[in-house]
Design brief:
It is a single chain. The protein is α+β, with helices and mostly antiparallel strands. The chain is about 40% helix and about 20% strand. It folds into four domains: about 5-135, Trna Endonuclease, Chain: A, domain 1; about 140-215, no CATH class; about 225-400, no CATH class; about 415-495, no CATH class. The relative contact order is 0.06. Residues about 40-45, about 370-375, about 470-490 and about 495-505 have low confidence and may be disordered.
Amino acid sequence: MKLLLLEQNKDKKGTLLETIVKVLLSSYGYDYVATNEIGSGGNEIDVVAEKHMTNFGVSKTYPLICECKAHENPVNMNDWLKFLGKVYKEKRKNSLSSGLMIALSDANGNVKGDLRNGNYLEDVKLIAGNDLIEPIISHYGLASITEIINIIKHWTNLTITDRDIAFYNNTPYWIVYFSDGTFTVLDKNGQFLEKVILENLVTSFISSSTYLKDNYIDIRKNKVIEIKKKAIKNIAIWALMNSSLSYAQIVEFISQNSGDQLRVDVSEVEKCLKELDFIDVVNNVASIKPVQEINMIEFYRSLLGLGIPTKLYNSFYIEHIDESLLDSIIRLQGGLSLTKEERDIVLFIIKHSPSALRLAIYPNPLFSCKSKIIGGDLNALQESLKSSFIQTLANCFEVDADGDIAMLLFDKLELRDFYKQTNYQVVLKDGSKCTIPVSKRLYYIPFEDIEGGAVIQASKDFIGQYDKESGYMIGGKQKRQKEKTLFGIVKHKTGIDEEYLSIFG
């Protein structure tokens, strides 16, 4: 990581270099800074500075000679030895004098080794490379390196290899580099730049580097493209689970089920489907390969990447969440030794909870950590890991039952009643105990006056009474019941389908 000066005019570059040097010296306690000379091309600057200190009532002035190198290449021994000569020439005049070299492009190993092994004490210091960064970040109010990395990770999955602070028109910017040879530019706060400023800055940067204009990427556009590709794949897979379709038919299916949110053409569909190993294409007609030829773990990872759009749900999805898939999941989670009853429970949960299935098809180090533990009761550990695994899946089930996809569970997967009972036991210092019961009940009721019905939060002993012929709740409008009628609030309605994830989300 280094500082870049992108000024093309040598005077501007020299002025900028002078400003940066003054900032750095002030951060190190120097209260007087004066520029002596700006070198050829604005790449070198000589500065004198003073630090005033009072010890035991005696005031002393400590002169400093400073040399700043802004060359593209790191400072070498020749540069370093010349500078040492200047420092010790000044020390013959004033023993309190010291020297500071600032190297914007860092210093090579020989220089750093000489400084480390030499008997310079406090007489000579070198500020180079990363040592320059924090004072610059602090003085100019830049976002921290951690903040920049988090912003980048929000917009792209590309691997960051390095980042620099670049000055342009006396303003600092972040330049971030990626493993594929591309780079992007952000302002000092991690925000995106206006088009004119961006174009000028990129032009200035590539003129002084090995990068080309095509190496610049707009990570915002890239994210939109990636989300769009995922959405195309996701909806196409749901379509193909019903039947084989041509590219044109898939385009039409996407249009019908996403509205104006997702506009695609045949070429985009073709490109996306070619990236899926479990899709066959013959004469521009796509179909899902026979199940025995598919890695079903990867299939469900692709399928659940953007969630389950309720209106696209079909039986293919649940039919293939079977014993074979469960075996793959168990191997993925470190070979958990589940009993027949536990297998049935896990299979039920992942069939009826997309969130639980999404969690189960990715390895979790917690559930496979037994292989790395030495000593202790291995059997007890295995039982604990199994319990944790099942509890985690059950928690996912609860979130789905009371969340945005509740109607998928209750309407499409035909759940009717979800009841949870938990007891909290509190023990006081004197040994007395208090048990606090907590319960939740979600109930599906097909009301006469609500299209499709609704999920309500009901009392523990609520009993629903249905008209077998009509399938509606008896007296739904008047809430008449033979027994207790404690309704909670209506949680979800089936008549209003969820909107599919926006590609700009």
